[in-house]
Specification:
This protein is of the alpha+beta class. Helix content is 18%, strand content 10%. The protein contains 4 helices and 7 strands, in the order αβαββββββαα.
């Protein structure tokens, strides 16, 4: 029989190996996408000043605590600087439109095109040393990736899912607009969260490939006053996936649209 400490050593090595494999797989997924802005990125925009890729969005210490995403490493804009999609753009929106916030304002801190992509709260290393390097391509999003601050010509964000009608009091309630799929819900860490299953047969489990709904409490919208599900940028897009345009699922046959819209 092997000594117990050797058994633990081997067990620890196995755990480290599995963990390293899982981390490598996760990092490889974003490493090969345009969201890798470091020197190892595939383009079209890369920066020679660092080989790190996570730093352009996240920092292990001192992130923006007002952001609704983990350890955010970019400065958020004033929500009032954005023009939102509203009933002046379409009379088909049944629910209220909230000020830009939640995960969407984090996405827009790069994709509204107002600041360079290396405008970070914390740069790599210690001492907040300024990044020195050159860009291949532009230093901020171009084309469709540059959404701008007028959001009236893009998919609505900050809108109540299905026109409202679902909230903490009625977490399983049906959307006001019957042309929307009923979402799933679950309490996670004391917070009720909602999502729309994308499987042909809904499995009742929230996964990255499901359409994520973001819990917000917003004054001034219909059925306001308590947490309810909202549609945000991250509802359809996963910034860490390698699928085309970072969609949570392929849009073959308009699958992304039809996941939520019963048409």
């Amino acid at each position: 029989m092997k000594p117990y400490h050797l058994y633990l050593k081997r067990l620890g090595f196995a755990v480290l190996t599995v963990s390293a494999f899982a981390w490598t797989g996760a990092s490889a997924e974003i490493e090969l996408t345009p969201h890798n802005l470091g020197s190892t990125g595939p383009g079209p925009n890369t920066f020679s000043g660092t080989a790190e890729l996570c730093v352009f969005c996240h920092t292990p210490h001192g992130g923006d605590t007002s952001a609704a995403v983990p350890l955010w490493n970019r400065t958020l804009a004033d929500p009032t600087t954005y023009t939102t999609y509203s009933t002046t753009s379409s009379t088909s929106i049944d629910g209220g439109v909230a000020p830009v916030g939640s995960v969407s304002i984090a996405c827009l801190s790069c994709h509204d095109g107002t600041q360079a992509m290396d405008t970070l709260i914390n740069t790599p290393g210690s001492g907040s040393v300024a990044l020195v390097g050159t860009w291949t391509g532009a230093d901020r999003p171009q084309g469709l990736a540059d959404i701008g601050q007028n959001l009236q010509n893009d998919h609505p964000i900050g809108v109540q899912y299905g026109g409202g009608g679902i909230n903490l009091t009625a977490p399983t309630g049906a959307p006001v607009d019957p042309d929307f799929v009923d979402p799933e819900n679950r309490v996670i860490n004391g917070t009720t969260v909602w999502w729309v299953d994308t499987e042909a047969t809904p499995n009742g489990t929230r996964e990255k490939t499901d359409m994520q709904l973001y819990t917000r409490t917003v004054a001034g919208v219909d059925f306001a006053g308590e947490p309810e599900p909202f549609v945000e940028c991250g509802s359809c897009h996963d910034p860490h996936t390698s699928t085309a345009t970072f969609l949570r699922i392929a849009n073959t046959g308009s699958a992304v649209c039809l996941a939520c819209h019963s048409k």
